[in-house]
Design goal:
There is one protein chain. By secondary structure, the protein is an alpha/beta fold. It folds into two domains: 3-174, Acetylglutamate kinase-like (Carbamate kinase, 3-Layer(aba) Sandwich); 255-414, 2-Layer Sandwich (VC0802-like), CATH 3.30.2130. The chain is 36% helix and 26% strand. The chain contains 13 helices and 18 strands. The protein has helices spanning 16-31, 46-57, 63-87, 119-126, 153-164, 197-205, 213-221, 275-285, 314-323, 325-328, 355-365, 389-399, 404-414, and strands at residues 3-8, 35-40, 92-95, 102-104, 113-116, 130-134, 137-140, 145-147, 168-173, 194-196, 226-230, 238-241, 254-269, 293-297, 303-310, 332-345, 372-376, 379-385. The strands form three sheets. Strands 3-6-2-1-9-11-12-10 form an eight-stranded mixed beta sheet, sandwiched between helices. A six-stranded antiparallel beta sheet has the order 14-15-13-16-18-17. α5 (153-164) packs parallel to α7 and α6 packs antiparallel against α7. The longest helix is centred in the N-terminal third of the chain and has 25 residues, at 63-87. The radius of gyration is 23 Å and the shape is globular. It binds aspartic acid (ASP) and magnesium ion (MG). Magnesium ion binds at residues 9, 151, 154. Residues 264-347 form the ACT domain. Its EC number is 2.7.2.4. It catalyses: L-aspartate + ATP = 4-phospho-L-aspartate + ADP.
Length: 415
């Protein structure tokens, strides 16, 4: 008998009719002979609504209380799914994060899972019950309820799959799988049959919202086969695995894009060994995540440093730089918002030079200004104006032969 873990996201449990459908799906899977653990998110947009409630009361909620509040969303869903299963004559039990043995770090809002005591879940499975686990939550050593960061139910599911040695972990969602690009913006995007852990991790980190990056990290570290599939239609999804065999001949496998990026430039800093360390320590200590960094020396040996942050961190970043102006000794800070980051990803880049050059050429043909660039072994990202983001994504999708029509030609060649 195999153990499988499956996860249903917020839209898939958005109302009671959908919850009944999830229960039927769980029942079918159990009838096929599997032990089934199901992780669910809060119903629909209920986490956002809880955030709004807190914001109505304070701009600065206590992080512990915020986690206490947000974890209620998932608890609503687990109990309702169990009731729906009981109506179908299936024995089931709901477990909060702590009841399911999910131990996390002692931070709130974005805690990492440190350990899972699977015994309670395993015991219920062995009794023949369907087990429903609240996603996105755990408990710290100090006994406080924590959350894993927005979208963290994916991570709950994969971590449980790893702990239970499950055969697979399926993430059921409102799309049918992982696409070469977000199909809402790139009409030629198509679903991938499979993708490697590394490529998926890169895409998730670069803004592809389909999977929580930490879920992919877990899947990779514990070699959990991860399936992304539709909760509505019973069609083949996308398999995230070690080394997918198909489409090896594609250098670029997918692209991701995200907006709300701001570039901050600090001009004329003293050119000293510790200048960079001092600036980025100050920002890091305030929890400001810096993405791309560019450093230049002027002809008279001063330093100019530019970096990008999420636009909602701009205010705080400027305050920190202003508060430390005397220590940092710069002449001026500029910033530019309404920017976006467009990235191409593919393991084939490691052995194919010229991918970045092709990317820049495409953007220049489209007359899109490139403001910052970063590269990794399997990705290239360009910061471009937000107004050009969709145009850039579509142009790059065609350029790297990801369009649906192009793919048919590639497939014809390799068969
Ligand atoms: N309910 C949480 C959120 O909306 C966690 C999740 O859905 O994965 O972010
Ligand atoms: Mg999600």
């Amino acid at each position: 008998m195999a153990t499988v873990v499956q996860k249903f996201g917020g839209t898939s449990v958005g109302d009671t009719a959908k919850i009944k459908r999830v229960a039927e799906r769980i029942k079918r899977r159990m009838e096929a002979g599997d032990q089934v653990v199901t992780v669910v998110s809060a119903m629909g947009k209920s986490t956002d609504k809880l955030v709004d409630l807190a914001n109505d009361i304070t701009d600065d909620p206590d992080p512990r209380e915020m986690d206490m509040l947000l974890t209620t969303g998932e608890q609503v869903t687990i109990s309702l799914v169990v009731m729906a299963l009981n109506e179908l004559n299936v024995e089931a039990v709901s477990l909060t994060g702590w009841q399911a043995g999910i131990q996390t770090e002692c931070t709130h809002g974005d805690a990492r899972i440190t350990d899972i005591d699977k015994s309670a879940v395993q015991d219920y499975l062995d009794e023949g019950k369907a087990v429903l686990v609240a996603g996105f939550q755990g408990i710290s050593d100090e006994g406080n309820i924590t959350t894993l960061g927005r979208g963290g139910s994916d991570t709950t599911a994969v971590a449980l799959a790893a702990a239970l040695g499950a055969e697979s972990c399926s993430i059921f969602t409102d799309v049918t799988g992982v696409f070469t690009a977000d199909p809402r913006y790139v009409k030629q995007a198509r679903q991938m049959p499979s993708i490697s852990y590394d490529e998926m991790l890169e895409l998730a980190n670069l803004g592809a919202g389909v999977l929580h990056p930490r879920a992919v990290e877990f899947a990779k570290n514990y070699s959990v086969p991860l399936i992304v599939a539709s909760s509505m239609e019973e069609v083949e999804g996308t398999l995230v695995e070690e080394e997918p065999s198909m489409e090896k001949n594609l250098v670029v496998r997918g692209l991701a894009f995200e907006k709300d990026i701001t570039k901050i430039s600090i001009e004329r800093l003293p050119n000293q060994y510790d200048t960079m360390a001092v600036i980025f320590k100050l920002l890091a200590n305030e929890g400001i995540n810096v993405d791309l960094i560019i450093q230049q020396t002027t002809s008279d040996h001063a330093l100019n440093v530019s970096f990008s942050v999420d636009t909602d961190k701009l205010g705080r970043a400027l305050e920190i730089l202003e508060e430390n102006k005397a220590e940092l000794c710069y002449s001026m800070v500029r910033h530019q918002s309404m920017l976006s980051k467009v990235s191409i990803v593919g393991s084939g880049m490691i052995s194919n030079p010229g991918v970045a050059a092709d990317m820049f050429e495409t953007l220049s043909e489209e007359e899109i200004e490139i403001m910052m660039v970063s590269t990794s072994e399997i990705g290239v990202s360009a910061v471009v104006p937000e107004s050009d983001m969709i145009k850039a994504a579509n142009a790059l999708h065609s350029k790297f032969k990801l369009d649906a029509e192009e793919l048919e030609k590639v497939e014809a060649l390799s068969s």
